[in-house]
């Protein structure tokens, strides 16, 4: 019997093999290979190259990287063998999701043997995960899975349909339960796809809910740039090169003001518990700034607020439009009360000083917050960790 | 007022600019740029490279391409200017979605200035769309958008949850209507994500429904490799290099037999019309083979059958298991009746002869089909076109 199965498999394989061949560009090697001891091997075939390096966010001496490749990352030299295969094995790496590119004679290039790339703004990077720790939360594990979907909500504010990423928890389809909602906002240059790619929000929620560490919840990830309907490549702008001039030219305040349309859409189309105790909002960088202002503008709407690597106090911006009544709004928010106002930032973050100012403003109005200071800069490693810490604190009362 | 808006934008931009910089690897040029006359310009900065070429499926002389890059495609030479920028502008291209890579001194590499890449099996390719014709169907246009989601269905057959891609038509969330369902199957080496990336199935349906050319329908795209729970990177196998040995080692027949679990899940969880007149099934290559067998095994289940670039008559496979009663099953299918059995294949397809055999088998049992012969080989260009032609014929009675 085994032989027959083998033969039939062989027949199938042979018959359809060409189905793939229009695309097979990979070299016949594996890269990046994560070993059980958390070392990682990179391989790249380029017999004629003079110099090949790995630019990755796991490498030290970040500031010495002269290449645009993965800025804020270090460069590690690879070694060529007699077959023209360049190799590098790292020292053991901390459990984490990492990103990298190769730098071939000075030109940044994706690893052709690693088909896993995520896009951020106008660039793709290869990714890999080192498990055996924190990174396990960023992998798909043998736990029940929630559903990720991309509905479009009608936005009168922008005159368009706008694309969302929505996570519904495991069992949502089958059951009749109503759920709390976390609105999770991306940073400048990002879009509705970012928290579920680099951010690993889907995996984090699946894993935390699976372990019983977070309550089952719906997570809504909108696009915070009102000048965009949807992520690059998913909108009527087609396959253009993302640029700040083109698709991030937002009118300040428009996203915050238009946010009601998102809440309305979610509460009309999903089984949610539509009250303050079951609404949370959080965001990173620009999304943290959005969070500060949305959570105070929408009075008595959110019981849980998360501000990751951000600030609420842009002096120039604060002078105008919805930002004018900034302090007054915070005071009102304090009076209305809430369960958690969680602020986290890394000591290497370029917004660190601005975050100090922001907290002073909160102190001035007497708004109580939880402050968490960590290592790290303005990077995804930090934001994934914050989400992993933040979500278990939600909807516990 | 304008000045103030500008200033605030400037402040926002400056403040959050660094949010992106951990990832900015792109060179400060655009590529691939599609011009109004359908010519396309590629650009790549590599001052030290000796030779840079574009490997794309729009280039002629496919067979002369010696590189693994995009097999089945031609190579076009680029020209270097005094700044080390390599450039190529094509002649006007037919309206279509194309894929390409650069070949830099013999090494295939993704275009660092085009963040749009799709993965097929173990490789990524850059993509772009030339509009003004057929290709417009593959773009997001200003029409109402359906929702793409990724639920997981419980599969007793495999003992796992397995990931689906599901398209629900515009208005599904709001309304109470019930819809017909098209089950759309991928080819060997593919997964549940392929029809919605390379296949542009989402855009095709949005556009055809928007123009009133196709009926609003739900489209279900499962993973046809039972050895996989989900597409590479979306399963518990992590970020591995896809390989036929690892994740395509299916037991022949398992997918077809297990298909009932998919129908059951869809009919239990979506607003569908659960009868034969409102069920269609179609697939490309291996998915066409699956379609042939599922549509005859599940008696009286599907009124619409689409076999794209495929065959049903694998002699060796047909000798065993569910394939043993192949002809008998077809006869039963004929007796039960159906609305449409649509077969299409390109004259350059490596399965062309096998498709002739397959049609002879159908003739033998007197099963009537519509046969469409086109240009082209075993490639996505052909399959997108077939889907564009097939879906308007569905659910019309």
From TrEMBL, chains A, B:
Example of a GO MF term: hydrolase activity
UniProt entry tagged with the keyword Signal: yes
Superkingdom of origin organism: Bacteria
InterPro entries: AB_hydrolase_fold, Esterase-like, Glyco_hydro_13_N, Ig-like_fold, Ig_E-set, Mycobacterial_A85_antigen
Signal peptide interval: 1-19
Pfam families: CBM_48, Esterase
UniProt keyword terms in alphabetical order: Hydrolase, Signal
Domain (Glycoside hydrolase family 13 N-terminal): residue spans on this chain: 36-105
This protein's name: Alpha/beta hydrolase-fold protein
Organism of this sequence: Maribacter litopenaei
